[in-house]
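User: Sequence recovery, please. Input:
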């Protein structure tokens, strides 16, 4: 089933708290995963996104989780169902129609940038 999730990841260190977001989409045996530092806004400029190693499917169901080894805290801030409308001939380009609260529309990833647009 085409599930996706947006996780807020708080990383603790001695002197600071760093926050980034992990975007995961179900990919049969695991989740394609990307990281970005700020949330994309509907019909706004593209933002930087970085491909990460695939994550386990368990992350689609977790609402919050304290990571081992003092690596931080993760909480789900959005989730839903997606439709993949990608042109499969480009391995670093993806287009998903997302149905969520924060991310709702066409989510396009091209290389190291992403953009959220209204779905017509």
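Assistant: Recovered sequence (120 residues):
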């Amino acid at each position: 089933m085409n599930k996706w999730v947006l996780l807020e990841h708080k990383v603790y260190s001695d002197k600071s708290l760093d926050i980034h977001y992990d975007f995961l989409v179900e990919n049969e045996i695991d989740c394609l995963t990307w990281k970005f530092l700020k949330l994309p806004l509907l019909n706004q400029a593209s933002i930087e996104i970085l491909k990460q190693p695939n994550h386990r499917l368990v992350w689609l169901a977790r609402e919050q989780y304290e990571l081992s080894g003092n690596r931080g805290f993760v909480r789900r801030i959005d989730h839903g169902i997606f439709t993949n409308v990608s042109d499969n001939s480009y391995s670093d380009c993806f287009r998903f129609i997302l149905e969520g609260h924060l991310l709702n529309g066409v989510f396009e990833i091209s290389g190291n940038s992403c953009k959220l647009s209204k779905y017509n």
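The chain has a mean pLDDT of 92.
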